[in-house]
Amino acid sequence: MDNARGGKLLMITIALVAAKVNNMAKSPNAAFTTALWVCLVKLLACPHAPFITNRDFSPTTYKAMYAYRTLRVEIPWKLIEERPDVLDLVTRIHLAAKEYVRRLLKELTGQEEPKLTAEELDRLLTLDKRELARQIIEEVFPKYGLGRYFIDQGKVFWRDVVFHRSIPLNVQLRVEDERDTSKAVFVDLKSGIVRVRKTGIPPFAIRLEKGNVTWIRERLQEGAKLKLAFLDINVRRGKDPTYGGLYIALVFAREVTPVEPKALVVIDVNRLDHYVKVGLVVDGRVVELLKFPRKERIRKLEKIHIHIRQLSRALARVDEDRDQRRALDLQRQLWKLETKRYGIIRDVVINAACEIIKLARERQAAIVVDTIEDDTYRELREGNWRDDKKHFLDGLGQLRRRLKESAQWYGLPYLEERLYSTVCPRCGVKMVEENGRFMRCPACGFRAHRDNVPMIWAERRYRELIEKVKQPTFSTPATVTFLTS
Asked: Is 57 in a helix, a strand, or coil?
C-alpha cells in the first residue's frame, strides 16, 4: 500500500480514537473491538525505512549550554499489525497532547488556534503559567486513558509538550551490563533492542538496525547522553497534513563549548541543478571552493523526473473505474520512483552537510548561509517553471535545518545572512544577467558568475560577519526545564 493511502487510514484511526474519547462520559469502559483494530492496522501496513533526523526544540533548549540530536526509530508495521494496542496508545498520546496544547494556548491568547513562532511561544510560556498548564493536563490526559505516569511526565515537561506535541518519556541506555532501572524506554545496545514499558499496555520491543546502533555509539563517543524519548506519529505538515507512521524518538544531549571562529564557511544555497556553492573565507579571502551535488546525481534526478512525468500522464489517461489494476500498477510505479527521488535528494543533503560541517570543524569556522528568502522560494515553487526545474528546489529546506542543527551540536557559530547575487559588490548597483549565469554591473563594469558574487560579498563583509557570529547564542534562562534539569 502506498504512503498516501496509509496516511488516510491513519487519519481514520485518529478519528476513531477521538470518537471513543468523546463517548467516554456515557460509557467509560467502552473499547473498540480487537477485530476493528486488526482490520485497520492490516490496511495501514506498508514498508517504512527507519531514518535519522533532528527534532525542533524550543529556543530555551538551544540557549542552554547543551545541544541535541534525535534518532527517530520507526515502529514496524508488522509489530502494529500484531499489537493494535500500540497504535491505540500512540494515537491517544498524540491526541491528548494536541488537546492540551489547544486548550492552554486558547486560555493564554484567547484564540482557538493561534499561529505562534517558537520565539513567541517561548515568551508566552513563562513560569507563572505552570499551574494552569498542570491543571489542564490533569483534566485532559485521563480522558484519553493516559495514567499517572503520563500525567506526571506532562506536568514536569509542560512547556515542551507544547513545542513537540508529544509527551516526553524517561529513558535508560545500557551500553554494557548496567542494571535495568525500570525506565519507560530501555535501549539495550548489546542486544540492539528498544523496549517500551510502563505505558499502560503490555511491553513491546523494537530491534535497532546496525546503522542506528553505530549512530548511537558515535554520539556517545562525542560525549552525548541519552536523555528522553517520545512515542509519536510522523506528521508531514503542510496545507493538508498527512500521517506517515509511528516512531520512537531517542533524544541525545551533549554539553557544548562554542567555537571561537577563525574563518567563515559561506554557503550559497541554490537550486540543485545550479549547485550549492561553498567557500572557505580566511582573513577576507576565499581560499577554497566546493560545490554539491555531483553532476551524475543531477543527471539521475533528471531521468527519474522524466519517468515520473510520463507515468503521471499515463495515469491521467486511465479510467480507474474500468481499469483499476492498471491504475494501481501505475500508482505503485510512481510511488517507487518518488521514493527513489526522495532518497537521492536526501543523500545529497546528508553528504553536503557532512562535508560542510567537516570543513568548518577542521578550520574552526563559523557557518554563514546565504539562503533563498521564504517569499522568493514560494514564488519559485508557485511560478510558471517547468516541473523538472521546480523539483530541484526540493531538499533546500532539509539542508538548512541539517546545517543549523549540526552546527549547534558541534558548537559552531551559525548565521543566515543575505549575501546578494544580483547586487554589485563594488558600487551596490543592481546588476544584469548575461548568458551562462554571469552578472554584469551597468555602472562600474564589474562582471562575475552569479554563484560567485555572494562569496565576493562575504570577502568584503568578512569582519562584520565575524563580529556577528561572535555574538553569544547560548545562555541558561531560569525557565529551562527540558533535558537540562
From this structure: coil
